[in-house]
């Protein structure tokens, strides 16, 4: 598992870890029951506090992405596909909201934005 920490980012380090692990899970790069590195191992690798990694792991577990087995480690939960699909839909929705806002800032009407969306969708289905 390769995680990159941006120390100059305004995003807290534990959130950066969470986001990257979620992405790996959603993209099936970390499958169900895959074992995550131990808190100590990941904190040593990233040269950060073990408490920061623990916080990220705790949040991932609270959101249903992982399961921690005392004495054995933290594992990717065998979450149902609907949950993962909803996470992916939220991510796409956020990207679309950003694109729509940018279109409006550029002076495009709702109709023009829809036309662009339809044009892009036509190109993608070929």
What does this structure look like?
With 126 residues, this protein is mainly alpha-helical. It has 2 domains: 13-76, Arc Repressor Mutant, subunit A; 81-124. 60% of the residues lie in helices and 6% in strands. It contains 5 helices and 2 strands; from the N terminus they run αααββαα. It has helices at 13-26, 39-46, 50-62, 81-105, 110-124; strands spanning 66-69, 73-76. A two-stranded antiparallel sheet has the order 1-2. The longest helix is centred in the last third of the chain and has 25 residues, at 81-105. The model has no long low-confidence stretch (mean pLDDT 90).
Q: What percent of residues are in strands?
A: 5-15%
Mean pLDDT reading: 90
Can you tell me the CATH class of the largest domain? Answer: Mainly Alpha
Number of strands: 2
Q: Write out the strand line-up for the largest beta sheet, numbering strands in chain order.
A: 1-2
Distance between the termini: 35 Å
Order of helices and strands: HHHEEHH
Which CATH architecture of the largest domain would you pick?
A: Orthogonal Bundle
Shape: elongated
As for the CATH topology of the largest domain, it is Arc Repressor Mutant, subunit A
CATH homologous superfamily (4th level) name of the largest domain: Winged helix-like DNA-binding domain superfamily/Winged helix DNA-binding domain
Q: What structural category do the secondary elements indicate?
A: mainly alpha
The total of helices stands at 5
Q: Which blocks of ≥5 consecutive residues have pLDDT under 50?
A: none
Number of domains as seen in the coordinates:
2
Radius of gyration: 19 Å
Report the sheet with the most strands, covering strand number, pairing sense and barrel closure. 2 strands, antiparallel
């Amino acid at each position: 598992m390769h995680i990159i920490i941006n120390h100059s980012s305004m995003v807290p380090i534990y959130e950066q870890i969470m986001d990257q692990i979620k992405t790996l899970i959603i993209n099936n790069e970390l499958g169900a029951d895959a074992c995550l590195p131990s808190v100590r191992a990941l904190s040593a690798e990233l040269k950060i506090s073990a408490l920061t990694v623990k916080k990220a792991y705790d949040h991932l577990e609270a959101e249903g992405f992982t399961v921690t087995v005392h004495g054995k480690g933290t594992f990717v939960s065998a979450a149902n596909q609907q949950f993962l699909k909803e996470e992916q839909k939220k991510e796409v929705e956020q990207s679309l909201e950003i694109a729509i806002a940018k279109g409006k800032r550029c002076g495009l009407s709702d109709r023009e934005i829809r036309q662009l969306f339809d044009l892009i969708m036509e190109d993608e289905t070929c």
